[in-house]
Amino acid sequence: MNLLISIKPEFVEKIMSYEKKYEFRRSIFRKKVEKIYIYSTAPEKKIVGYFEFTGYVEDTPNNLWNNYSDAAGISKESFFDYFKGKDTGFAIRIDNLNIFTHPIDVGTLDNFRAPQSFCYVDDIF
What span, in angstroms and rounded, lies between the C-alpha atoms of 109 and 105? Predict the structure, then answer.
């Protein structure tokens, strides 16, 4: 099982430049996942690559920031705005990043629906 995860283009760029080494989420998936495909949201609307899922850390937003801010690729203010009202957050490590030479334009896929946060998918290819 794989995952398709929606990420804003500004953060996708930081992932691709290896500045962002963790993806933070307010909720987490529960099924066993092997790959996480990266969907760059509007205006890009492309699947740009994937990384291997090797695990996540569940902790308070304060602890996540204290432990991972150097590889967060996000400002402290934006980070805490995102987690406002949440006691727990998740940091997914971005391991073995594979960027597609030719990103997949989702306009060419039949019945594609961008996930609000994430959705389970079979292999993209």
Answer: 8
For the entire predicted model, the pTM comes to: 0.93
Domain that holds residue 70: 2-121
Interval 33-78: pLDDT, tens: 999 999 999 999 999 999 999 999 999 999 999 999 999 999 999 9
Which residue type does 3 have? L
| Pairing state between β 35-40 and 95-105 | unpaired
Number of domains in the chain: 1
* CATH (domain of 32): 2.30.130.30
Residue 67: what residue type? N
Task: Write out the DSSP string of 36-53.
Answer: EEEEETTTT-EEEEEEE-
